[in-house]
Design goal:
The protein starts with a strand and ends in a 27-residue tail after the last strand. The strands form four sheets. A four-stranded antiparallel beta sheet has the order 4-5-8-9, with no helix packed on it. The longest helix is centred in the C-terminal third of the chain and has 4 residues. With 191 residues, it is an all-beta fold. The protein is built from one helix and 13 strands, in the order E-E-E-E-E-E-E-E-E-E-E-H-E-E.
Length: 191
């Protein structure tokens, strides 16, 4: 069994984007093998699947992975808009191999064309099975940028959405280009 797994996004691979999984063959990590790859179930040209990714093991042998798809396009009878999305996968780890099962795709409530929703992502499991998810949308509001913060108790079957902005934001700031959630427990300990 593998001790470490690496996920590598190649967002222009096959024009849709692909994520590759590598695992160690030994406890020292001297030998790595690529053993699988996958893309979204409804991938389209220029999606950029895997441009950003985040994975966390929450309970033994199980966890979630998030894949940003900032080029995801919503196609309607009138036009197509490149808005972005984030795919959530359930990971079951067996014998050092991740079996990734696509759970759902989420987008922001008011995302517009070229906002780049999903260009950066991070997640954090908190007490009482509450999960937080932060999604960077750097091109929102004429490149001022926003971060969409979600929390959920059921792996995002239901979720609450909050939108964060810089209090002094101006056009071109690209707020949300990178995001990171940190658990600060008020006893001077970071997790």
């Amino acid at each position: 069994p593998s001790n470490y797994i690496i996920l590598v996004g190649t967002y222009s691979s096959s024009i849709i984007g692909t994520v590759y999984q590598f695992a160690t063959l030994d406890t020292l990590g001297d030998t790595w093998v690529s053993y699988s790859s996958f893309t979204s179930s409804d991938g389209q040209i220029n999606d950029c699947f895997g441009y950003s990714l985040y994975s966390a093991r929450w309970v033994q042998n199980s966890g979630l992975s998030l894949y940003g798809v900032y080029g995801y396009t919503v196609i309607s009878a009138i036009n197509s808009n490149s808005k972005g999305a984030v795919y959530i996968y359930n990971n079951i780890i067996s014998n050092g191999i991740i079996n990734a099962i696509e759970l759902k795709k989420i987008t922001g409530s008011d995302i517009l064309n070229n906002d780049n929703y999903g260009k950066s992502i991070t997640s954090l499991k908190y007490d009482n099975n509450i999960c937080y998810l932060a999604i960077g949308v750097p091109n929102k509001e004429q490149n001022k940028g926003q971060v969409y913060l979600y929390y959920s108790k059921d792996r995002f079957e239901t979720k609450t959405e909050l939108i964060l902005t810089a209090f002094d934001g101006i056009s071109g700031d690209l707020f949300g280009q990178s995001v990171q959630l940190i658990n600060y427990d008020y006893s001077n300990n970071y997790n």
